[in-house]
Amino acid sequence: MGTRETHERLPPEMRDAVDEFGHHLARVEDRSPETVRAYLGDVVSLLDHAADSGATTLAELDIVLLRSWLAARMRQGAARTSQARRAAAARAFTAWALRTGRTTADPGAHLSSPKAHRTLPTVLRADQAEALMTPREQDPESLRDRAVLELLYATGVRVSELCNLNQADLDEARRVVRVFGKGAKERAVPYGIPAQKALDDYRRHARPSLAVKTSGDALFLGVKGGRLQQTVVRRIVDAAARAAGLPHTSPHDLRHSAATHLLDGGADLRAVQDLLGHASLSSTQIYTHVSTERLRAAFKQAHPRA
């Protein structure tokens, strides 16, 4: 049964709470559509579990129900990362329910979540990244795709941030782009000459061909003139990787690669944190581990006493 069908069968109070919580996440907390969708799916799953256990109101949610829900998902083979997100969604929901007077207690405050196992991110070598950027065709879509690839790798922006860019966000004189990240936090990210050239080619020779009356100021446009969608960007990156003879590559892999190559080149960790828009330095430190692993691999391959 899908989330929508499950939502419709919830008791009225729970169903209304889900709708209001979704509005809160999207409008008040300014969460991304992906986060809102994931959190609401988790909350619907939690409340469905509670309803199956006999609960009909939010007041009946307690720590026992929350833990039994997570345990049930774990028995179904849920990954640790999924469990960590479910626990975060449950905590956010019960805290919101208490703040808005829908409950008198916050059971989620006592809910712990499994530590997500952090694997080292996929990182392209510099020569692989170069191959990815190699121009192949000069039609409007190809020029757009080249600009997309260059800007992703040059700046390390998230795919959602790239799709939300407007032409007004580009400061061509300083080669800086204004990016609005998570929580609508604004940051300025520099980009290099190759990205500047790709953007110039796209805006002069491709964007006018793609634009329609309703395109507005969106920087990257789809074939029908609307703002370029994230799914299309993912296809662009993967297609370029296949054309270059590389394994499956995602926009986030380019973000990982940009960060790692900056650190390999001697960039300061906090500067990389600012460029990526990480709220916590710990999120950026994973790339220091990548750099260390790359050094260790090079040592083992090249040093006679390795």
Automatic annotation (TrEMBL):
Function of the protein: Site-specific tyrosine recombinase, which acts by catalyzing the cutting and rejoining of the recombining DNA molecules. The XerC-XerD complex is essential to convert dimers of the bacterial chromosome into monomers to permit their segregation at cell division. It also contributes to the segregational stability of plasmids.
Name the record gives this protein: Tyrosine recombinase XerC
InterPro entries: CB (IPR044068), DNA_brk_join_enz (IPR011010), Integrase-like_cat_sf (IPR013762), Integrase_catalytic (IPR002104), Integrase_recombinase_N (IPR010998), Integrase_SAM-like_N (IPR004107), Tyrosine_recombinase_XerC/XerD (IPR023009), Tyrosine_recombinase_XerCD (IPR050090)
Subunit structure: Forms a cyclic heterotetrameric complex composed of two molecules of XerC and two molecules of XerD.
GO biological process, one term: cell division
Keywords associated with the record: Cell cycle, Cell division, Chromosome partition, Cytoplasm, DNA integration, DNA recombination, DNA-binding
Subcellular location: Cytoplasm
Gene Ontology molecular function: DNA binding; tyrosine-based site-specific recombinase activity
